[in-house]
Amino acid sequence: METGPSTPGGPAVVLGLQRLSFAYQGLLEIPYDTILQQHDTLEVLDLSYNLLD
């Protein structure tokens, strides 16, 4: 499996998919600015296990 950087909130490439993960970070708001910076190539967005309403 091909993987890229695994820093939280950082992009990673998994099996050719551009993935952005914010999982398990206790977020109260969606980080729109960071997400929009990746909008041209982003295919998978993980916001699981946060405190979002």
UniProtKB/TrEMBL annotation:
Superkingdom of origin: Eukaryota
Protein's name in the database: Uncharacterized protein
UniProt source species: Cirrhinus mrigala
